[in-house]
Every structure is written in C-alpha cells, then in structure tokens.
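User: Predict the structure for this protein chain, please.
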Amino acid sequence: MGKDLQQQQEDRLASGGTGMTAWLWHRAKPYTPPWLVTGGVGLAGAGANLQWGGSPWAGVGLTLASGLLTSATWWAGKSTSPQRRLHSAITVAAGSAWLTSAALSGPLTGPLPDLYLMGGAALALSWNIRHVMRSSGGESTGPDSDKGLLEKVGLARTKLKQIKVEPNRVTVPYELPAGELTNDDVAKALPRIASALDVPTTAIRVQHDPDSARKGQFVIVPEDMLKTPTLYPGPFAPGASIEVPLRIGVYDDGSDLVLPLLDAIHMLVMGMTGSGKTEGALDLFFELLTRRDVAVWLADAAKGGQDFLPLVPGLDWAALDTVSAAAMVSTVQAVIPARAAWLRDHSYRAWEPAAAGPQTDLAHSCAAAGACGCDGMPYLVAWFEEAAKLLRELGEDTFTGIAQEARSAGVSLVISMQRASGYQLSTDTRASLPAAMCFGVRGDDASFALPEEVLEAGANPGAWGNKRKGYVYMVSAGVDEDLYANPARTFWTGPSGEYEKAAAWIVSQFAGIRPQGTGAVTEAVAAKVAGELFTHRRVRAGASDPAAVPASAPATGPALSDAQESAQTVAALVDAEDADLDATADLPPAEGSVALPQDKPSKEAALELLGELIDMLAQVGPGIVAVRDLYPYLEQIGRDRSWVSKEMKKLAEDGRLAPTGEEGVYRLMPTLAGV
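Assistant: Here is the predicted structure, written as structure tokens:
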C-alpha cells in the first residue's frame, strides 16, 4: 500500500512543467546529503584559513582533531557492517585532512582545489552508489550486522542475509559458518534468541532449508495477533465435497487455518483441559456437517456427548456410552474390508467424491456390462472423543487395525484425548496417525503429538498450557511444511446460548445436503456387527425419556463407578436359580467322579460349544481373544488348533469377531443381548 501511495505521489509531481521540476527534486533529494557535506567542508576550509592561516599551533590542533575524529568514527561504527565502518572512516579521514591543509595554506593553494573537486565528488558519489544499492535490495546486511546478539546466543560468524520486513513479521535468512554449526544448533538457540529480542518463545521460529544443513531463515512475529479470538465466520464451502479443505481458524499472520482431510486421513487431537480442544472439535464438526458426501460417527463414552449434544441430530451415529462406543470400534474395524471391497469392485483405487453418488459411470461399474447403478458410499469420519477411557478398557492397540487398514477405504479415524503417551496409545497406532492438532499441553507432552523437527523449529505448545485457549499447531499432509511451527487459533463458536443457536442452524440448514446414511454396504455390516446399537442409533441418541427408547435399550440412569459397573456385569452372569446361593460357602464333597464323554463331538456340537465359549468371554466385556486362549478347551471341543483357527476366521468374516492387526488375534464384540 505504501508503494502505491508513493507511486501516486510521483505521478502527480511529474505532471506539468512545474511538476516535472518538483518530481526531479523529489527523486534527487535522498542523494543530496553527501554533496551538501562536501560543500560544507569547502566552506569550512575557507573560513578556517581566514582564522588560522599560517599558524603552526593551529596546524597541530587541527591534525590532532582530524586523527581523533577519524578514530571516533571507527569506534562508533563497531555495531555496523565492516563495509560501512570502513567507508565512514575513510570519508572522515579524507575530509578532515583536506580541511586541515586548507586551513593552514588556503583552499586554493597547490593541488588542494583539484583534490577537493575530484576527491569530494568521488566520495559523495560513493555514498550515492551505496544508497542506490541499499534501496534496490542489492546490499545485504553483513555477517556482523548483529554480531553481539549472535555471539551471545552461540551463533557467532553467522551471516544474516537481506531482511524482509512485513506488518508484524520479520524474515531473516541466515547462513551458518561452514563446518562449524548446523541447523540443529539454531534450533537449540531459539529460546536464547527470544530472550535477547525480549519476545515470547512462540514468537520466533526457524525454517530450515531442505537442501542445506547450514541455511534457513528466522521468522519473528513480535506481536501476538491471536490474542483476540475470531468468531466463527460460517461454513467455508457449504454443500461442497469433503475433498475441499475444512477451514477451522487463522494463523498468526492472518491466513486461514485449513485441514485437507483427504490428505490428512487419520488425525490425533491433543490438548489439556481448558486448552480449547473441544472448541477446535466443534469447528471441525461445523464444517463436516455442511458437506454433501461425508457421514460422521462420534463416540464419547467419557462425557456422554455433553459438549456435542446440539450437533447429535446431524450425526449419523452418536455412541454416548461405553458399550455403544466399544461397538462402534468393532463396527469400524468390520466395515473397512467391506468398503475396500466395494471400492475395488467399482474400480476405485481409493475413495473419491464420485464414489459417494449413484454409480452411473461405466468406468466405475461392478456389472459385467453397462452401468451398475449401485448406491454410492459417502466418506466416513469416525471420531473418538476422550479416547483414553476406551483405550483403558479395550487396550492400547484398540485403533491399530483401523488406522493401518482404513487408508484407502474412505474412512478417517480421529482420536481426541487430553494427554497421549506410549502407555495409552500404542506406537503402531501413533505411527498410523499422520496428522495432528496439538493445543496447549503440559511440559514436553507435545513430543507425542508433534514431530521432532517441528518442535526444533520453534513449536512450543507447552508454553501455552491452558492459558491460550484455542491456540494450536497443526501438522498434516497437504499443509505447507513451513506452517507446521506457526501458531494458529481455532474459531470461537460463541458463548453459551450462541453456540447452541449456531449448531441448530447448521443441523437444520444443511439437513438436505448431508448424506442420509453411510451407504448400503457400510450399514449392512454395521447392523450385523452392532445390532440394535446401530439400527436404533438415532432413537437412542435423541430419546428424552425411557419410553422413547426401544425395549432392548438400557434405560438411562446415573453414572456408575467402575466398581458398580463391574458388580452389575457379574450379577448379570448369575442365573436366577442360583441367585440365593452363597458364593463364599465351601462346595460339598464330591460323591464320585463324573464320567466325561469320550466320544468326539459332532461338528455341529463343536461349533455350538465354540460359540458358547465366545459368548461367555464376550459377556465379561470387550477384549482380545486369540486362538491360543482356547487351547485349554481343545479337548472339550474335540478339535485341534487348526480347526479352531479356521472357524474363528469364519466368525470374523461373519462379523461376530473383529480382526486386529495381529494374525490369529480377534477383538470380541460387546454383548448385545442385554441391550
């Protein structure tokens, strides 16, 4: 904007004869100081000659003054570049020497007039040339432009290139001394640089040159432009495909914070209580519920969907208790191979927007001839909020199979938790979550969410904690890597009351745009795996009184402790005829040995017994079962390990068991009979 105003002013000055003169003076004015100084030295020499001409004592004094002035110039230029320091000293020495000679013998004596005209003009022109080079960007700040600061922070001899200054943003390219320092040393020095500049540690970061181990640039943002939250501005691309990125906030330079979900695939969302993690989730849900080809499944067993209740009517499935959430985990595992098979049969290498609509394209037909006309398969986002509870109950590798197998099946897994660690989330699962959003955390917890190179570049969510609500770092494929270490802030959906209004508007306004379901293939598998937990999902999520819930659904009651839940589970396993028995009493002595059947059970009987064993394990609660776990029952079943392994694979294909990433190990489905 400043350059435009300057250009307008120059154009105005250049119009007309008088304007041309003014324009020429305007252009020449920055170059006049050296010539004015040269003229002043000439006048000073003539005046000094009138005062001290022929005086030997004046000669001594002027000579000493000349030397002191030159030395002072050299000393004063210590903080500038070597070129400027030397140029200034030479100019002062030449000018003071001519002045001394002119004062003693006269400015028109001998070669003094020629020296004045040639030397003075040459020095003035040298400063003009320097000004031209500096204004055109050709002069770079020398390696010692801020030598004192760089020496203090351990980066001595580092060369700083041309500085780029923008509103609230300074970019300083650097070049480290070859063989002495690397970009790793720069990363370690960032806190000291921030201290030297008196800015927060999050205000300075470094962008390494991928083609060099000693080059890069500092980015300094002295003022925090994110202090004032940005109110949610409305949908970014209403009615568009999920392939269009989701806008959820702003970076500290004012640019949009967008998540390209199809590039991110799976994501870890982490942040401590009060860090604004839920606000960021609401922004994502607001975007998802305005798109035409994506369905959302939400599991929130920890809070029962407390933060998302206004959005529940817009979700395809909301699992708000532990049993439903566990069923959703198993369902997602089961639908992945079915969705992948559907995509394969319709000649899709991976999910794309065309897969969401009716298949009328010959290139994507599962029929031998002509378009098949099959119903489409919308994209699926499976969001597990406060996933720590599920991980405690189902095991740390709960999501490993999903994350590893869902990449090309049109399924995105989102795991949200306050603090992720290797004790809660297996390293295999974490490695399969390529994207991350890290809000404020404690200490060095961010090391599990953000890559090491992003932390070394200056990202420091530990400096925020819960004092900067909504502040976040985002790492994802499809996002410029230079933005990974840039702080951003998610949109504010408004205070209590306003958020509910915005959510209700999103749910109702885009009800006709959102897909009505997840597609026939997905829903068939989900109904088979989760039963009424899925088929009655909308009734269960929206029921306000027990009468509105199907008879098979559990009545909503007060939250139970872990001990109470365990006691209820055990009580449910006790038959009514045994309810009056004392479990602590000694068993009566055996009256004789019981003869065990010696004949090998028939195949039907063996299958029935295997099913009973699985049902027995399932009633205890969701967990992992392996072929080896049934070894103690092989004699009772009357079959060997290979037979049991084959039958368990069949049960997995039928949806009764859910496969995991480990061979021969399956996840038990939650018991649905009592639901």
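The chain has four domains: 28-135, 147-220, 248-363+380-539, 601-675.
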